[in-house]
């Protein structure tokens, strides 16, 4: 976007009469431009404007031709669609939260069979205690899993590289519910001490940076499930049904590892021995199934893409299987392998083949499916869905859930949140991607049917998206904050950047060589968005990812009838008193309805109170704030927000060094001046000299060649004069 695209306000007034739906222009006006406009008195605080003209169409909500405030129309709801989440559906409290969400969303839960009793939450946070100096490169899980009684006997090899000289104490994560019998390091037995959630190995000699070591742990026990149900012994129709869901802290409940998303292994092997009547779903490719005799078989899954420990899973029972094929080039296809309960085969065969269209749509949007050399698949378990790498665990065949989990293969599995505080990079992206799938497969209306309830859920989110409470799985997987608000952030970013730049940024993020098959934090995504768009987006990420809550807007408008010189003033206010952020900076759409057409202008709101004045020849019937619901917000109704008195506020900051802002209010159209004087009464700067409509105005004074000391600023509006003092410190 080039600030020089549109040079004068005349151009904008011509845009107003354009009826072309596709027409669109953008005018960013920066700080210097604002000051110039102040001087010639034509327009105030008009930093940025985008105008598009739409044909007249029936309004969906009543619009009153007055200057009073209106309430945003209630987003439409879909009574039968289900938005799903990963699920995490675990203990009673969490289920209660989800029930509440569904009620709030006006949705039914009929498609979901949440298993409340399968999981037992242990509320303690189990953060990784594993040694940072040990950089994991490979995991091999060789597990014998029995169900009569429930028992796991394991031999796990963890290979890695030393990243710090003189390292001799190696700590790995494992719950002491599992008993360690023997530890071998590079083949030799080693001393170890087991603690509650970890074990420490004293190495035979210090390791130096760059040296590699391979640790093999022999252990056994009955895993105790924690978090979202890390390891579950269940049954269906009386048949044992055993599965894992390790995110976020549960991997070390059932196997020794580095229990952190930040350190991915380059590859993994998962080898499971169990009763021969079972199939085991896991990561990568199934390379062998060996019948051991005595009713036991060993299945070997080989994952050759980088993988985080929480994305390694097993799911086993007497599954039946069927496959669909994703034909991603004229000559190549990839298998989508489904392991489902025999009693659910028919339902699965009806629903799951939709994943083929999803693979095409996401591959078009984000780049080819990231594990194309292996497979994608689903293993049935209970409890929503979990995006285990290349083999999602699925507790429902709901289309939105299937799309959500598939999207995670790009956002979550290929690019993994480096810390749990960045979880929205997984969940917000997957949740929003489902909207992209809906839009591309079923059209725009389906996108909005999906997004409107999410926006509504996000509006109630408490807390900070970029710093959620990570102390327990339940707090971390807060739907309204991490999923709904995370998705809403992307929805808003799309409108801020425009469609083509937004999708280019998402694609660049997904294909960034530093991030692909690795990990990311929010700042990585922000930098890519800024690089692709050429814009500074710090305000956006600070307020939406690191700020709290959502903006509340009050607005009114007035129109000055002066023929071709007619002006429309829009007065906008965010209630004072919030802390983080003090106010939201956002481009906001206003739809101006006249007897002939609708015109949408986008105004860049970057002050607590702001009046925008734009040339507008036709008499408006109504002005609607963010009519299409692109911004997470509340619009409150109330009396007219135009000032009823003359006011000159104390400048801020004060004292100041290089610049300060001055806010004033005038209750009617007046000739206005705002002038700076020094102690001797000399005129230092004329900030405003214009005829202005009633409204709230904020002026920036950037001091240059002004020495330290006391200065006065004086507002003159008609017969009224108000003066205040300010201090410059050099
Ligand atoms: Zn998810």
Can you characterise this structure?
By secondary structure, the chain is α+β, with helices and mostly antiparallel strands. The chain folds into four domains: 9-73 and 553-635, no CATH class; 134-318, tricorn interacting facor f3 domain (Immunoglobulin-like, Sandwich), CATH 2.60.40; 416-544, Neutral Protease, domain 2; 647-728, Sandwich (Immunoglobulin-like). The protein contains 13 helices and 38 strands. A hairpin with a 5-residue loop joins strand 21 (385-386) and strand 22 (392-394). Helix 5 crosses helix 7. It starts with 8 loop residues before the first helix and ends with a strand. Residues 1-124 have low confidence and may be disordered. Residues 86, 387, 404, 408, 427, 430 line the site of zinc ion.
Ligand list: zinc ion
Number of helices: 13
Mean pLDDT: 84
Order of strands across the main sheet: 7-6-10-4-3-13-16-15
Portion in helices: 10-25%
Distance between the termini: 36 Å
CATH homologous superfamily grouping of the largest domain: tricorn interacting facor f3 domain
